[in-house]
Each structure stands twice: as structure tokens, then as C-alpha cells.
């Protein structure tokens, strides 16, 4: 049983079939050891009951008292964290359930305060490896990239260059990891579409978006709900449209749910609500700040989760599939000079 729940595929299968829905709430106050004290796991049952569980990561001594960004992302049961120190950034991979945490080799920051760096983590079931992507852009408001590198957990001992694989990047676009590839909306001067990065082959590709829909990276984002590719469309001011690809890579399998903002209570700041997950019964969970709402698509009604005891929810709520996979075990094949665990 322990081996089964430690397998990489367990988290994805659990997220797809479990009657429970899990969300991670990183409450960031600016320093790394505060993140470990203010990370909450929410478990939502089929009947809408919500249980809060505090999570405390076993951060390394070398990470303490460093100013931090926050949780970079979640993938197949593991989290990636970005922790800053003068002149460099430390990327960590952690399992929030077991508390285990490893530190990847440091990387010198590009042009210090002038460049904006993105970190994205994904998992490929085809090679059974986690990979972390590092993309340096010229600045926080410039989509032109300067450098792209990748690190394979358990294999590499240093960051590898991918050359000019991504010439331009939408800095604020959401990314998801699904079926061994990263997905995001890419818009440049000539085209716009859902781009993919195959983690096994380390190649860029495309996947079909809803037929007839004109994509716009400023009002649309990809999302992962119950382990399916989704597209959140906010291009119409009065509504939120959620597209779901029922069968991966099949263009004709896209379906949509249209949610009018007028269906929400008047005291809810609808324009700030972000869809974060779909419950097992089909309801969609929206969240922002101290509000967490479940919306029943069929009945066009919503209800607010009460009493989960978190004073303020981070604007970026993270979907999470529980797993006991060990990030420490993933490093045992690596030939690193120093492995911090």
C-alpha cells in the first residue's frame, strides 16, 4: 500500500477519481519560515463539508530567514518553492504531507534586479521524472525572454540550457502540467494558441483550443480541474465561461459552462473571483481573499464555505492531489556534489 500511494501516477489518479477535493492555501507574509507556518490544506467532501488542516514544511536551515516569493506550483503531489537570498534564488521541491524538502542547485540571478524569472514544475509519466523550467525575461513588463533552462530532479547536477526555445513569453499566464506536458496560452505578433512543452522530449508544441473561439491571453487562462484541461474565458464582462476538454487532445471534445456574474450574491466581488477547481459533483469552486464559494452549474446557485478558519486566502489558490511520493527518493539517482535534504 505504501508503495502504491508513493507512485507518481497515484496523485493524478486520486485527483481524477477521489470524491474529495483538495486545495492548498499558501498565506505568505514574506519570509520562508512563515510560509511553513501558514500553509493550509482544505479537504472538501461531496456534500460540501470543508476541513482545514495546517501544513508545516520541514524547511532546511539554509532556507530560514531568507525573504521568499511564494509557492511556485503543485504537480503530482509535490510543491515547488522559490526562496530568495541576496544575488541568487533557491528552488525547493517539497511534499507538504510528509514535510520532506530538497534544495536544487543554486542559480545566479540574471542582471539582478532587472530581469524577471519564471519557474514552472511539471511531471512526465513517460520518463517518471519531475522537471523544473526556468525562464528569464528582460523585465516584469517585457515578454521577450533572455534565457531558458531546465533541471531534471534525480538526474541533473546543474541547470541545462534549452537555448532560445521560448522567444517570447506571457509573464502572467497560468501554466498547468498534464499528460507529461506543460500547457499555457501564448500570444505573439503573429499567432495565439495553447502552447505545450513536452517534458520527456523537451520540445514545444500546440494543442487544439475550442473551435471558433478567438483566444486572448489578457482575458483567458488555462486551468486544471479534476485532471482535465480547462480554459477560463473572461472576455465577456457579464459572464465567466469555462471550457473543458473531456478527451485530451481531441478538439471536438471541448464542452463549456457559461456562468453569469448576476447569479452570484450582490455582496460578492465577482470580478475578483477565480475558478480554482471542480468538485466531484460538478460544482465549481471560486476563491479570492477570504471568500471560497461553490457554484452549482445546473441549479445556478452558489453557497459560501463557512468556518474553515483561514483569515485571508491567498489570491492564488492551488489545486493539490495528495501523494506520499518522496522528493528525497527522487534525488538518489543524481550525482550531485551536495544534496541538501
From TrEMBL:
Residues 68-295 form the F-box associated beta-propeller type domain. Signal peptide: none annotated. Pfam families: FBA_3. This is F-box associated beta-propeller type 3 domain-containing protein. It comes from Sesamum angolense.
Amino acid at each position: 500500500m505504501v508503495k502504491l500511494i508513493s507512485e507518481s501516477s497515484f496523485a493524478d489518479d486520486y485527483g481524477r477519481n477521489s470524491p474529495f477535493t483538495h486545495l492548498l492555501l499558501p498565506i505568505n507574509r514574506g519570509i520562508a519560515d512563515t510560509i511553513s507556518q501558514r500553509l493550509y490544506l482544505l479537504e472538501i467532501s461531496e456534500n460540501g463539508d470543508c476541513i482545514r488542516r495546517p501544513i508545516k514544511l520541514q524547511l532546511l536551515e539554509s532556507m530560514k530567514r531568507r525573504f521568499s516569493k511564494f509557492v511556485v506550483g503543485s504537480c503530482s503531489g509535490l510543491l515547488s518553492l522559490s526562496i530568495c537570498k541576496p544575488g541568487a534564488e533557491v528552488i525547493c521541491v517539497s511534499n507538504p504531507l510528509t514535510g520532506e524538502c530538497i534544495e536544487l542547485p543554486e542559480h545566479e540571478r540574471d542582471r539582478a534586479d532587472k530581469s524577471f524569472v519564471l519557474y514552472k514544475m511539471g511531471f512526465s509519466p513517460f520518463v517518471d521524472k519531475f522537471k523544473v523550467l526556468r525562464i528569464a525575461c528582460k523585465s516584469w513588463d517585457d515578454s521577450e525572454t533572455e534565457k531558458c533552462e531546465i533541471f531534471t530532479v534525480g538526474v541533473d547536477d546543474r541547470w541545462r540550457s534549452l537555448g532560445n526555445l521560448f522567444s517570447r513569453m506571457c509573464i502572467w499566464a497560468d501554466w498547468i502540467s498534464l499528460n507529461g506536458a506543460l500547457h499555457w496560452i501564448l500570444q505573439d505578433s503573429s499567432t495565439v494558441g495553447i502552447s505545450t512543452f513536452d517534458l520527456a522530449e523537451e520540445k514545444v508544441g500546440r494543442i487544439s483550443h475550442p473551435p471558433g473561439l478567438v483566444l486572448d491571453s489578457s482575458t483567458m487562462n488555462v486551468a486544471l480541474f479534476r485532471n482535465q484541461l480547462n480554459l477560463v474565458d473572461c472576455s465577456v464582462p457579464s459572464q465567466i465561461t469555462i471550457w473543458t476538454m473531456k478527451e485530451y487532445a481531441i478538439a471536438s471534445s471541448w464542452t463549456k459552462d457559461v456562468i453569469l456574474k448576476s447569479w452570484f450574491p450582490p455582496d460578492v466581488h465577482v470580478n475578483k473571483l477565480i475558478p480554482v477547481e471542480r468538485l466531484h459533483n460538478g460544482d465549481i469552486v471560486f476563491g479570492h481573499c477570504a471568500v471560497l464559494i461553490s457554484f452549482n452549474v445546473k441549479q445556478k446557485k452558489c453557497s459560501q464555505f463557512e468556518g474553515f478558519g483561514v483569515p485571508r486566502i491567498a489570491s492564488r489558490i492551488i489545486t493539490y492531489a495528495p501523494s506520499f511520493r518522496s522528493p528525497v527518493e527522487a534525488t538518489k539517482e543524481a550525482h550531485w556534489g551536495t544534496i541538501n535534504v
